[in-house]
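QUALITY CONTROL LOG
STEP: pairwise intake check
CHECKER ROLE: data steward
CRITERIA: each record must contain a sequence immediately followed by its structure tokens, with no blank fields

ENTRY 1 OF 2
RESULT FIELD BELOW
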Amino acid sequence: MLLDGRKIFSVALAVEDRAITIQQQLMAIVKTDFDPNQIQVYYKFLNNQPVIYVSPNRESSPKQILTVTNLDSQLYGGIAPESLAQQWKEQIRAALLQAKTERSSEFLMHQAYLAAGILLGVIVCSLLLWDERRKLQAHRQQIRAQMPSPPTENLPPEEDSSGNQNLPPETAATLETPSEQNITTLQELVAYKQRLNFNELLLGLSQLGQVILWGGSSYFILGMFPYTRWLQLVLISLLPPPLKILGVGITSYLIYRGACAIIDRAFAALEMAALERTAGSRRVLLRFESAERAIKSLSGGACVTVGTLFALAAVGIDLGPFIAGAGLIGLGISLASQSLIKDIINGFLILLEDQYAVGDVIVVNGVGGMVEYMNLRITQLRDGEGRLITIPNSTISLVQNLSKDWARVDFTIDVAYETDVEYALGIVRELAAEIYRDRSWREKIIEPPEVLGIDRLDHAGMMIRVWIKVKPLEHWSVGREFRRRIKPQFEQAGIAIGTPHRSLSFHNSLELLRLPPRGDGVTGGRRFGVAHRPGDGGTPVPCSPSPA
């Protein structure tokens, strides 16, 4: 039984709406503006049962509040009805006096000042949390800006014409090896990633703090006034299931963030150990990053699944039949989602075999792009036009990885038949050595370029092929630079680019003379052809050039 939202005592519901009737009677007494010094609460026996009465003042007639029954005595462990009536009498008197006091202007003014102070404190704390969140966001941007790029091979010292390194002895003695520098860079990357994850955890907690701060303070302020305390009861009656679900959700989120922190630390230790064995390979970082994302995705799915089960149990749903039928449901789902199971299995094999990782450039099913995101189910690529392409892992049967370990520039160029082969190859070799000596491009080239020579002879001329072994994803930029440099070199040397030739056969000279001027086979504004003498089986005869 409640008065102004506060529980006074419990009664047995022998009669329907008994508690509501008692509450309405007490509220009617409170509204009579009774005198606290004259109010009387007593009981007397009626039909051998104690009946509690309330007399607001001496002039008014007493009002019957309730009758203490044997069921009420059983509810309190078999206490005598008279003793229970005595106890309830004191509780009713105290509740009425408290209700009278809480409706006084002095008390309401005091509570208003207190509520204003609490609200002001909440606003200040909320602003502090907002400022802290803003600082955390700025710090996150700073961490991302300061995060070092993936490691690259260290540049070897420049060499002179005799092949000696131009370094002072003291500098050469203190120079770190490429693997040491790569491991150091990767350690910095891991440290920055851990700081970033901790920053995201603090951001999530700041949001949760805002919700708890405003929700808790609003609930507390509602309970400070007798006229609004009933809203607390409404919230309590309506919010248990949502609050339980919210509590399960918050707990699941905290468990997920904790699992992410543990995964980060575990992978950091594994990465350091693997990097020492692999001499600081950049590939190790990509592979561990992809596996870490997949495991975090699985952890998130597990937290969501377990959290959902706990939420269902919290709102009163019996999980026994649900769990008992989970086997049949799982069988049905497995039959209906075979492609999903294939996606997960193939995704696991992709990670296990290190076919590709986040940051690689791959070609899958005729579609190419950089791997932007991957998990056990899908792989997402970003192509050259910025389109995000999502590919289910079960459809991936053939993968072309363009950035694993190293890449190669396969440079080819056709030169005319009249070109001096050795002279052209010498220019190409000199240009290849020049770009290899250039320090700005040397850091992208793994080995000296290899000029393979003449790789093809056909109607277009002689094809020269050059191989340049470069670091992953650098073959496009190195290839463009090599083409840019070779064009002015060939123009300066007078080397013509190979042009396709055609051979025309005529049965008599008149057909050649009747041939209208066309642009086919034109070189320098003149047309060349081959004629055949009549009657000699089509033997070709060179024709002199004619104006186009």
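ENTRY 2 OF 2
RESULT FIELD BELOW
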Amino acid sequence: MRAEEKGQRARTGLSRWALGALSGALAAFAALAVAELVAAAVRPQSSPVVAVGGASIDATPAPVKDWAIRHFGTNDKLVLELGILVVLAVAAPALGVLAVRFRRVGTAGVLLFGVVGAAAAVGRPDSVGLTDMLPSLVGAMAGALLLYVLVGRLTAVRPSPASPPPASATEGAGDGFAARGEWDRRGFVLAAASAAAASAAVGVVGRSLNASRGQGAVASRARVVLPAPRSPAQPVPGGAGLRVPGISPFVTPNGDFYRVDTALVVPKVDATGWRLRIHGKGVRRPAAYSFDDLLHRELIERDITLTCVSNEVGGPYVGNARWTGVRLADLLAECGVRPPSRGGPADQLVARSVDGMTIGSPVEELMDGRDAMLALGMNGEPLPLAHGFPVRMVVPGLYGFVSACKWIEDIELTTFDSYDPYWVKRGWARRAPVKTESRIDTPKPFARPKAGTVMIAGVAWAQHRGIDKVEVRVDDGPWQKAHLAAEDTRDTWRQWSLPWKATRGGHTLTVRATDRTGAVQTARRTRTIPDGADGRHSVVVTVD
């Protein structure tokens, strides 16, 4: 009989440990759901997953960030959020099991996760104050309370009438964990089921409310009518786009334009309340502008290719669009700003985004006559939310991390010696002109074209210098000059093509570009850190 009792006790213990793990998982679910609801009342960026994710991005070394972008592309943020949820999915059941043995310790562990989330939220650059702590703290308290109640059901023992346990049966059982008797199965099931249903409902409501908070931004964007630009872009030359299957379109559609930033939640800014402040060193007439102020100024329209510094050789983070906006140099001049070459005391412009991002740009380049602008439109429509609505910076010839501030709200004039923006603090260069690069779009790597004439084609870019020549080499053969499509402007990429008489077997195709200064794309490979990747793009194909 003792053997049967021991077996029964072992099975009971195992079931309690399993239900303890379930209790921990339910507590985490409840905590996240309640936090989501509270974040809807505070602001979506204060959600614990978003706050911890943002803090993780800020603390991640630049090489790791670069690796994530290289391997996960624009899904890097999704991967990070899933990683956080996986950590919670592992930690929560463990805390539940711990709570079965040490009830108070397990629940305290849930509260500790809340403290971590609260610290991350209030420490973010865009934090609005202590209220950002509320979602994490309130959510953690709800989760801890639920875990305490559920574990209480597992450890509340009703002695069996047939064989009441001796007084020593529960000795050493910790916080009420009994080895004999019957725990409150019915109470646990009811509490767990109710908690799961309530958490799901709260989570749905919270998510809906968070989504609705951005409706003002969506509505304000829908009301925007871009005026005809005073200085329109010239029509794209008819020969700028080659009719080669597989080549990138000359104009990148908004939905296909690359997005690389640190925002886990896309800021949704209502244009009616948006303001831009210009101030700082050498600003003799500080000013503030509304969206309507900019909209009713003289607008320019330009075709400009943007490139991300995280773009590997042959990578996808480059795109060409038609931008509409206000000349940044005109605004700066109105405020009394002079470039360093004309005696201005500030050599760096620091742009600040609503999400706390800071980006530093050289004042000299912003005022040297290039079409640097505060963009309001992209490809004939107001900026998409994900690409900076209502206003962003666009500067031809500079990588995005030193020029392309999205959701901009503040411009401060300062010096490179006195302030390091976000990316500079993490090991990236202070100045970063776009390098001369080219890419093979077709054939794709490891393609198997048929023997005969195969069209090799792609794009090349050297913004603000222009592309003068593109050459292709097959294996170790001579460089062959490719046909260049018509140039739109020196600030846009150029398409190119070369018909190749392909022979059977494996081949390596390599491309290089030469810009208008005579600089030839180097063969030496370098990493993207600190100022952009160098090297020539190659693809390996097998001709059948």
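INTAKE CHECK: passed for both entries
DESCRIPTIVE NOTE, ENTRY 2: Residues 165-180 have pLDDT under 50 and may be disordered.
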